[in-house]
Amino acid sequence: MIRIAIVEDEQLYADQLAEYMDRFMKETGEQIRLTFFRDGEDIAVSYKPEYDIILMDIQMQFMDGMTAAEKIRALDQKVIIMFITNMMQYAIRGYQVDALDYIVKPVSYFSFAQKLQRAINRLPKDDVHAVTVNSAAGVYRIIAEDIYYIESEGHNLIFHTKGGDYRERGKMQDREEELAPVGFFRSNKGYLVNLDAVDGVQDGCCLVHGQKLLIARARKNEFLTALAQHMG
Length: 232
Known about the structure:
This protein is α/β, with parallel strands linked by helices. The chain contains 7 helices and 15 strands. It has helices at 11-28, 40-44, 65-75, 91-96, 109-121, 172-179, 220-231; strands at 2-7, 32-37, 53-57, 80-85, 101-104, 130-135, 138-143, 147-153, 156-161, 164-169, 184-188, 191-194, 198-202, 205-208, 211-214. The strands form 4 sheets. Strands 2-1-3-4-5 form a 5-stranded parallel β-sheet, with helices on both faces. A 5-stranded antiparallel β-sheet has the order 10-9-8-12-11. Strands 13-14-15 form a 3-stranded antiparallel β-sheet, with no helix packed on it. The protein is elongated, with a radius of gyration of 21 Å. The two termini are 32 Å apart.
C-alpha cells in the first residue's frame, strides 16, 4: 500500500487529482491510500512521517507549499515531495527541499501518470526497514541501513545516523528485538551495532564510523560469529 497525501486548496483540482489517482490505480494495479489536506498548515503542523509521497500545491492561503515542505523535510528525509504549480520560478527553491518533480497546472493525465510512476519507482523496496524515532523535537522516520549504531544513555537512546544524531526515551531491548532481523547486534549493554557499518575489529572493539565501540567479553564470540555470517 502506497500512502499519498494531496495538499490542494482548490476543490476543482483536488477532485481532478482524485479522479486521476483512481484511473492510475485501475491501469497499474497499484494500491494507494489517499489523504487530502486543504492547506500547507494542515499537514505541516503536527506532521508525522507516515506518507510515501506528498503532492503539494505551492500557492495556498495560510501556509504556502514551499514553507510546508521545508517544515516537513526537517522531520522526514525520505518522503517524496512533488509540487503542483503554474509558477515555474519556484523550481530553484524546490531543490532546497529535495523536491522530486513538478506537476504543472492545468494538469493532464498523461503528465500526472508519468510523474507519479517515476515517484513510485523511487520508493524503497519492501525489504527496506524504516525506523520511527520519537524525539523531543518531533517524530522522524529513518531507514535502518542509515543507522550506524544506537547508544544507550540512561533512559535515552541515541541514534547515530548518516543524517545526524537523534535522541529518544526508550529501551534498548525493544530496539534490539526490532532491528536484530535486519542485521543489528548488541556489542555490549550500551551499543546496538549495524553490522553493515562495522569497518573492523581491533583491541576488543568494533570500529564503526570512526568510533571504537567496546565488545563485551561475554558477547565477543557471538558478535564475531554474527559479523562473519552477515558478511558471508
